[in-house]
Amino acid sequence: MGLAAKDRIRAKLKEDETTVRLLLAHPMHTGRGKNDTGELIPAEYIQDIRCWRNDDEVLTIKCGTATARNPYFSFQLLGGQLGDKITIRWVDNIGAKGTAETIVG
To answer: Whose CA is closest to 32, among 71, 64, 70?
Structure first.
């Protein structure tokens, strides 16, 4: 039994912007794919991703079945300081949830 994949996040401050890079470990099944025996794989995809800087929600991303497996996101937040905590929380269409945190460096 191998290690389960986990979400990865990094945040870096440069001048007056915080760049956040996020890699989510998720199969993102569309509901139209088939397994090895030809049966449809049920839909399972991230619907909602939210980002907080310290205690303030600063970004919401809505996803659907067209989002790639193990999606990668990169975005800039205006401002920020070294030591800020960046938190990501996501939820998929069947209720699975994930969280990733990092400190701005």
So the answer is: 64
Q: Which residues 6+ apart lie within 8 Å of 88 measured at CB?
A: 7, 9, 22, 49, 50, 51, 52, 98, 99, 100, 101
Cα distances (Å, whole numbers) of residue 95 to 19, 50, 51, 53, 98 = 28, 15, 18, 24, 10
Q: What is the pLDDT averaged over residues 75-86?
A: 97
The pTM score is 0.88
Q: Give the Cα separation of 23 and 8 in Å (integer).
A: 5
CATH assignment of the domain containing 90 = 2.60.40.10
Q: How many structural domains is the chain composed of? A: 1
CA distance 87 to 53: 7
**Residue 98 near residue 24 (C-beta atoms within 8 A):** yes
